[in-house]
Amino acid sequence: MTNGSTDRVLLDFISLVDADDYFKVVVEVRAGGVSYVGRLISEVAYRQSITDLVCKGNAAPTAEVYRQYVRAAEEKRAENERRLAGRPHTPVPEMPEALHMQVGEGESVKIWRLSLEAVEAWTLLEVSVDVA
Question: Is 105 exposed, middle or buried (0-12, 13-18, 19+ CB in 10 A)?
Fold first, then answer.
């Protein structure tokens, strides 16, 4: 699927998760001939995971660069919230640039960022709301 032909439903689920980390959306995505099964995560969560990984190693002094990416993702989320507050029945104005997934559990968890253009097919496996 190219970005112009990316399934609108998939974009809506990605936007939903990007807007609020309480939504749990599990999908199977096929990209580059490989299937990935996992939970969609927000861009903020994706970038925070990368930053956390950098901080664990000896590259921690470079972590500030990655923290800036987290702040940029948080600012994008806040801007989308402001835009929606003014027009509650419109979709999030900034469409997702990529699909972010958490694949696996426990110590075998992997975080993936897939280009929307690379998505060949997808299926929805679960939708729920995480309540604390």
Answer: exposed
pLDDT digit string (tens) for the chain, length 132 residues: 544 567 889 998 998 898 888 889 999 999 999 999 999 999 989 988 888 888 887 777 777 888 888 888 888 888 877 776 766 555 545 667 899 999 988 888 899 999 999 999 999 999 998 776
Tokens 């640039």 label which residue?
97
Q: Which two tokens stand for residue 70?
A: 């987290």
Report helix, strand or coil for 1.
coil
The Cα–Cα gap between 23 and 129 comes to 5
pTM (two decimals) = 0.76
The residue written with tokens 């990316």 in the block is 6
**Tokens of residue 27, six digits:** 């999908």
